[in-house]
Specification:
Elements (H helix, E strand, L loop, with lengths): L4 H9 L17 E7 L5 H14 L13 E5 L4 H14 L8 E5 L10 H7 L6 E5 L12 H18 L2 E7 L21 H6 L2 E7 L17 E9 L9 E6 L4 E4 L9
Parallel strand pairs: 1-5, 1-6, 2-3, 2-4, 4-5
Antiparallel strand pairs: 6-7, 7-8, 8-9
Length: about 270
């Protein structure tokens, strides 16, 4: 017999409350988190910054984190290039974060079946968050086809359950007109994105800043180091999370909240 609503609430309230790894966005339990954006926009930088923030327990773009061990498995970028990035990141995260961050560059492989071999490899690491960058190399078949995407997501959810952690997927998103901006709502329609969006707990979209207007009229020069992080989907958030205008600090190779934050003008 099913419990009454009151009985169910009393049972739930007796359970320990688990703090989100990233407040309102990444739960401390199995989940699929998607970070999308066009090629070369900075998803890898943002993903590494997120893991380092969590590994050190500091805020990520003013969003609270729970300190836990993070992992990153990348399939793109040469060793020297990634090492150069890490050298810069040490400026912003000097105190122990690198020791709490499992990092690996790998040749592409396919995540198939129940992901037994992968689960066996990563179980001893006791991670709190694991990132794959980018997801397309793990998908058996065509990552943009619904059937292949669904098969991959099913396997990925099984792996997340076995490892007891959320998995962050970096995903290259293509748009027919490269000059136009990707809007959050379009993620449900763009080829190679919609199936992953449907099964994700949280979806973040990194996109260029809209071109600003001059106070006296006309277009201002485009600010190449300014971007917008959209939260297209956040099941765990109490309310919709407004987009964050961020600026790339090239010296530290991290994104920082822009001083003139908020959604850019159109």
């Amino acid at each position: 017999m099913s419990p009454t609503l009151r009985e169910w609430m009393e049972r739930v309230r007796k359970q320990p409350v688990m703090q989100d790894i990233l407040e309102g966005l990444i739960p401390a339990q199995p989940a699929v988190i998607l970070l999308g954006g066009r090629t070369g926009i900075g998803k890898t930088i943002l993903a590494m910054q997120l893991i380092l923030a969590i590994a050190s327990g500091v805020d990520f773009l003013d969003i609270k984190t729970k300190q836990t061990k993070g992992g990153y498995l990348g399939f793109e970028g040469g060793e020297q290039k990634m090492c150069d990035r890490a050298e810069k990141l040490q400026i912003a995260y000097p105190n122990g974060a690198f020791d709490n961050f499992e990092f690996e560059l790998s040749a592409p492989f396919k995540l198939t079946g129940q992901g037994e071999d992968f689960t066996k490899l990563y179980s001893p690491k006791e991670l709190g968050l694991l990132a794959f960058d980018p997801l397309k190399y793990l998908v058996s078949g065509d990552y943009s086809k619904p059937a292949d995407a669904l098969r991959f997501i099913t396997t990925l959810q099984t792996v997340a359950d076995k490892l007891h952690l959320p998995i962050l997927l970096c995903h290259h998103i293509r748009k027919p007109d490269a000059r136009s901006l990707i809007e959050p709502g379009e993620l449900y329609e763009l080829k190679g994105a919609s199936d992953y969006v449907d099964h994700a707990t949280t979806v973040m979209l990194l996109e260029r800043e809209r071109q600003q207007h001059r106070p006296g009229g006309g277009w201002a020069p485009r600010r190449i180091d300014y971007f917008v992080l959209h939260f297209a989907k956040a099941r765990n958030a109490i309310a919709a999370i407004p987009p964050i205008t961020i600026k790339l600090n090239r010296d530290k190779l991290i994104f920082e909240k822009a001083e003139d934050g908020g959604e850019p003008s159109t």
